[in-house]
Amino acid sequence: MGYVLYGSKTSPFVRRIRILLETIPYDFKELNIFEGQDAIDLNKINPINQVPVLTDGETTIWDSRQIFNYLNSFHRFQNMDWQDENMLTAIDGAKDAGVSLLLMKRSGININEPLLYVQRQKERIDSILDYLKPYIRDRALKEWNFHTISLYCFIDWAIFRGMISIENRPECQALLDKYKDLDIVTQTQIPRI
């Protein structure tokens, strides 16, 4: 039957799986997760009501991290140790914080106000990007793996959504510059509409 990936072209969580699947056949079902029939359909296949969702025959996987683990068990993209898992947890934490900020902004909350929850999310992103500096310098600029893909997708998305500025983060700019022209990166680019 094959893999079917459900998601939005704007989600950094979906994009990292689309990039991971570069050489593996799959069908992509684009969803508008916030309204209409797509939102209803998403809720039917994923009770946590988020994207991406991967189906493989009768198997349904609900979260991008678990999708990676599932695919990695078959395709052996990379070996993972506990430090690698911690690194993905940090990257996913930055993405979660960015998505929270975006949803607050779309809900009419001024994310420039000194609200505790808003400040906590911004501090979380900054702390994680600080933590990841050595990784970017020492590994991400040399290895195109799931960590680098995940980090690239987050940084590109967060800039696009106005959640971060990297003018004082040359390592982040170097990461974007290094991989922005890869075919799979341009093919999965966030629609700029």
Protein architecture, described:
This protein is of the alpha+beta class. It folds into two domains: 3-75, Glutaredoxin, CATH 3.40.30; 82-182, Up-down Bundle (Glutathione S-transferase Yfyf (Class Pi), Chain A, domain 2), CATH 1.20.1050.10. Helices cover 58% and strands 9% of the residues. The chain has eight helices and four strands; from the N terminus they run βαβαββαααααα. A four-stranded mixed β-sheet has the order 2-1-3-4. Helix 1 links the parallel strand 1 (3-7) and strand 2 (26-30). Helix 1 (12-20) runs antiparallel to helix 6 (146-160) and helix 4 (82-106) packs parallel to helix 6 (146-160). The longest helix is centred in the middle third of the chain and has 25 residues, at 82-106. The chain is globular. It starts with a strand and ends in a 6-residue tail after the last helix. The relative contact order is 0.13.
- What is the element string, with H for helices and E for strands? EHEHEEHHHHHH
The number of helical segments is: 8
Radius of gyration: 17 Å
Topology, number of strands: 4
Overall CATH class of the largest domain: Mainly Alpha
Short description:
This protein has 193 residues and is an alpha+beta fold. The protein contains eight helices and four strands; from the N terminus they run E-H-E-H-E-E-H-H-H-H-H-H. Helices cover 58% and strands 9% of the residues.
Helices and strands, with pairings:
Elements: E1 3-7, H1 12-20, E2 26-30, H2 36-45, E3 53-56, E4 59-61, H3 64-75, H4 82-106, H5 116-140, H6 146-160, H7 170-179, H8 183-187
Parallel strand pairs: 1-2
Antiparallel strand pairs: 1-3, 3-4
